[in-house]
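Protocol step 4 of 6: structure prediction from sequence.
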Amino acid sequence: LITGMMARHHYRGPQKQYRGNHSGNRNAFAEKIFRISDADSAQAKQMKPVIEKTMTQIDSLENHSKQEVKVLLDSMKASFKSILKPEQMEKLNEFTAKMGHSRHRGRH
């Protein structure tokens, strides 16, 4: 888990700075692994496809996770409809719309 978090941090950088075009980030991440492991050029050539495959899998997991979170949050809001007054629901919807917009700004 910690290794995955470190990989994500080095691959993407701080989350709010992620810009969606991460081929440069993948290269930077690969270069960092090569430097840390002191890999020679032959080793780096063998390691590169493994790094690419891993980063693709991480992207897929993150995308799937984001979709699951959205479903859970939508379900929570639907449950609030029977609890909150219409004007309260409207405020909540405005807030979550802003949060969704700011969450996606600077990412994918």
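Step 5 (inspection) to follow. Residues 45 and 82 are 58 Å apart (CA to CA).
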